[in-house]
Amino acid sequence: MTLFLNHTSILHNLNLCAIPYDLIMVCNCISDSTIKDGSTVLKISLNVSIPDDEIELSAIRAQGAGGQNVNKVSSAIHLRFDINASSLPDFYKQRLLDLRDRRINKEGVIVIKAQQFRVQEKNRADALERLRELIKSVAVVQKVRRPTKITRGSHKRRLDDKTRRGQTKTLRGRVAAEYL
After folding, report:
1. What number does CATH give the domain 37-139?
2. Which of 22, 123, 124, 136 can pair with 114 through a Cys bridge, CB separation 3.0 to 4.6 Å?
3. Which of 97, 106, 123 lies closest to 22 in space, CA to CA?
4. pLDDT of 34 strictly over 60
């Protein structure tokens, strides 16, 4: 049963107590996706969103242990998002392409594989959330670091400490025979 609800308040209003908690979490992850002109969009920020047709999702078989289920069910999700062909603003595109991340290949395609959960819907929500977080991370502008100059007093104290430490180390040396 696939259930896509926009808000948890709808769940409370419908009094659906039989829905498992995991499925409610999937609904909460997808709640940022809004319906616009009949198509779904992935909302990145207030002004930026990605139409669903720009994101390529395909179900594949998950790797690793899982018994018979892992061999029968395609529960993992393979997400592909072409940065150059997307409708993202140029600022986001340039920052994403400059990003040194192993999930972005040479052609400028983001590839995310989500296989953490046993349910395909949860893996889909996880892949979309990871894409959203990656795009949001490039929107944050790093603060420019201004190098500061060392004060004259701290420079003098550092040199005095070095001299004192050097004297202590020379006093630890061997005592000459004439002083005995």
Report:
1. 3.30.160.20
2. 123
3. 123
4. no
